[in-house]
Here is the input.
Amino acid sequence: MREPVERVDERDRVLGVVDRDEAIRNGWPHRIATTVCRDPLGRVLVHRRPEHVSRFPGHYDWLIGGAVEVGESYEDAAARELAEELGVRARVRFVFKFLCRGAISPYWLAVHEAVVSEPLTPDPSAIAWHGWIGAAELGEALRTRLFVPDGVEALRRHPGLGSPAGAAWQPTPPLC
Here is the structure.
């Protein structure tokens, strides 16, 4: 198996171990862990996927994450993905999860949050561009840029994505 994942049911109970591509091909739910990254000012990290990736090339996203490995918790997977994709170690906090019907296949999507204050070292095979943006800029980007559809669904369900009390939103470079 290239990327073993736990196949789960509609209640997120493990049914067995399968290859992620097989789960996608057969429409079997598996687990994905993601993180909303904020800087100390409360801005949200947005990134653009490279053009060469197999899933959603060139799309923007506000979530960092990937498949949960066999036997791994959602929280551990979210922290691992931050290290792999951004080169940072940060404490992640679970926010919510839901059964995402997915643009490609169904999966349980766990959304976490983390405050990231250290410099990012994005993996160029996963991230072509990144920037910190405020809530108003995120709303505008969602209207004008092509975002990963499952990320848009997660944003719609997020129980309170907004600026922390007293945080000042600062302008950032435009989305590239």
User: Anything to note?
Assistant: The first strand starts at residue 4 and ends at 8.
